[in-house]
Amino acid sequence: PIDQSEEKQTEAEIFAAGAISCETSVGLIYFCTNYFHFSCQFISALLTDSPADPRLNPGMPLSSSAANSYQQGCIRMTLEDSELWKSFHTVGTEMIITKHGRRMFPHCSISLSGLQPFANYVVMVDIVPADNVKYKLAVRHSSQWEVAGKSEPQPPCRTYIHPDSPAVGSHWMKQSLSFLKMKLTNNTLDQHGHIILHSMHRYYPRFHVIQADSPHTVCWGSFQTFSFPETVFTAVTAYQNPKHCLALHYSFYFGLLT
């Protein structure tokens, strides 16, 4: 039989352990809640008030903050989620690249107008260098990038063809076009068609609209190319800039990151 004093001692120890655990859990919840509110307030101010860094995209003309669509000839292209792109652009967008390929966030999504309704089009995207240098985070300022030397030789440029290609103009214009499945990799021997990039280099996507009946005949079709200054990003193997990480937390908690 268990001694009564031992039983009472055991109950007291269990109660004490439970109280400590409860206190720890409450403290953890309190900390997480306050950290969440602080992060949201900080990142909201950060994304709203910080001026855009013109060095983020030296190879492209800067557009006004209200511009999210461009027109060439009769064709107009609009960047979807432009405000989200601009928010990340303010702090310096980073995109993770991995050996097996990683999807972009924010991902590329566009809408089109002005196409000929019954003509066939191929829509594709490639990602090209924004400049000819590579970067590193500044030692004294962990949220600022600085030039670290000349860029490495770039791998052959690959294109990602939208899976609906080819399709008639009326199809392309009826809804937005997502390039969610496009993946980025740092594997120069990649055999899966992913876009090959170098870490610590800056890039931006170019969107091509080609009037053609097949992806194999795009060389002979008339085409228009579009790009958006706010889509410039730095390729990284792990997120570097603390401000970018806070922007990701902000997007996650408000349902933008899925």
TrEMBL record:
Alphabetic keyword roster: DNA-binding, Nucleus, Transcription, Transcription regulation
Location(s) in or outside the cell: Nucleus
Segments forming domain T-box: 79-243
Highest rank taxon of the organism: Eukaryota
SMART domains assigned: TBOX (SM00425)
GO biological process, one term: positive regulation of DNA-templated transcription
Gene3D superfamilies linked to this entry: Transcription factor, T-box
Main location: nucleus
Family matches, as InterPro entries: p53-like_TF_DNA-bd_sf, T-box_DNA-bd, T-box_sf, TF_T-box, TF_T-box_CS
Name listed for the protein in its UniProt record: T-box-containing protein TBX6L-like
